[in-house]
Amino acid sequence: MIGELLASYGHHLSVLVMASCLPLAFATLPCLDAPPAIQRAVLSVLQAQIRQTKIDSATRLAELSLQKTAAYTRIGSKFYPVLSLPHEIVSAIFVACLPVHGRVRPSKKTAPWILTQVCSHWRAVALSTAELWASLDLELSRQRDLQTGNRVVVLKPGCERIWNLWLSRAGSRPLSLTLRQKERSRTLADQLLPYFLRDFKFAHQLQRLEADISPSQFRWLIPANASLKHLTHLAVGLDHTTAQTLPGRAAPLTSLVIREHLPNSLPYLLAPTLTRLEIGRNLALVDFYNILSLCPLLVHFRGMVRATPACDQIRYPSVVLQDMVSLQINTPYASRDQAGALDCVRALGILTLPNLRTLHINVAGRAAHDLLAAFLSRSACYNGPYWTKPL
Q: How confident is the model at residue 280 (pLDDT cuts 50, 70, 90)?
């Protein structure tokens, strides 16, 4: 009986013996009609191979761990001066890598994002430095809504995640926010903003706000009851209602760029704390005089000034601004002739600016040149250059 079994399954037994010496991939299982004894023997050999493989793997892993530890030790034995700097100094160096103008456009190729990809130490320092994440420059675009067919204002894909990430890392730091919009033509899309930009809950942290948005969108971004106690620089378009309430909410405002506004709203925006003022629409000569009277600390002014028939009936007293360093008065496009250029220079007739360093103005005709020469003589501001642009 035993002889017959060996004769019948001698091939399987030889394979079984070989399986204990060869890799598992070369072992051949017995056929389905092989006796249970042969099947159990094959299973026993396979289990033994598995146990041996686990032992060999554990041994190899232990060897690799020792080699890894040795490699770390060799690296740690070398001295890298940059990694020995105190946390505060590294943080200050990182902040110095930000753009001088204070507008940070998120990019993995520039600070602060790139600073988190160098090593774990730098990443920890960058993530714990709130000032690195306190400035954000995003671009608004427009796309067609699939449900309504109307064009709506949106942020580029991924910007919402960046928005939340930046603000969470900034903590309680004063914020700088810039929203750009290439398309300036006003449509129904300019009434709203993306939902997560509405009722900006971090308005009380804003220190700088520059936004290419309509006055209606500004009301969505900054609620009427929001405090702007840290705001020092603002560049937006404003309507009459916002202009009335803004000065009381933004007491420390020193820099104001008005991109669009209603003429009768201008007096509400002027404050004695302003040192920089830029206005994007035409100003009557009387409005220009009111600005100079209400903002005695102005250092920089830029705007378009035009004279009206009523201006000829008013005699303006001279205004002396000791702090003004830069003055740019443009001619409205509709009156770029000698008369329009004379309006620009007439604005200088009421000014004495002893510390002026930069003057941009349009000049045309003998009368305009005479007024300019009288202004320069009266101000005695010969220490710096000035530029005149002939029409």
A: confident
- pTM for the whole structure: 0.71
Domain that holds residue 22: 2-76
Q: Is 158 left (phi over 0), alpha (psi -120 to 50) or beta?
A: left
pLDDT tens-digit series, residues 60-69 = 999 999 998 8
Torsion-angle region of 365 (φ positive above 0: left; ψ -120 to 50: alpha; else: beta): left
Q: Judge contact between 222 and 197, C-beta under 8 A.
A: no
Instruction: Kindly tell me if the per-residue pLDDT of 351 is higher than 60.
Output: yes
Q: What is the pLDDT of residues 78-100, one digit of tens each?
A: 667 777 889 999 999 999 999 88
Distance CA 274, CA 253 (A): 7
Residue 191 lies inside a defined structural domain of this protein? no
Q: Would you say residue 54 lies in a domain? A: yes
Tokens describing residue 117: 């990809």
The residue among 199 and 378 whose pLDDT is bigger is: 378
Query: Could you tell me if 366 and 276 lie in one domain?
Result: yes
Residues 6+ apart with CB under 8 A from 357: 325, 326, 381, 383, 384, 385
Q: Count of CB atoms within 10 A of residue 280's CB? A: 14
* Residue 40 sits in the same domain as residue 104: no
Contact indicator for 235, 137 with CB cutoff of 8 Å: no
Considering the domain architecture, whether residues 285 and 375 belong to the same structural domain is answered as yes
User: From CA 283, how far away is CA 281, in angstroms rounded?
Assistant: 7
The verdict on residue 70 lying in a domain is: yes
Kindly report the average pLDDT of the chain as a whole number. Answer: 79
276 & 376 share domain: yes
Number of domains in the chain: 3
**Nearest in space to 253 (alpha carbons), one of 214, 227, 215:** 227
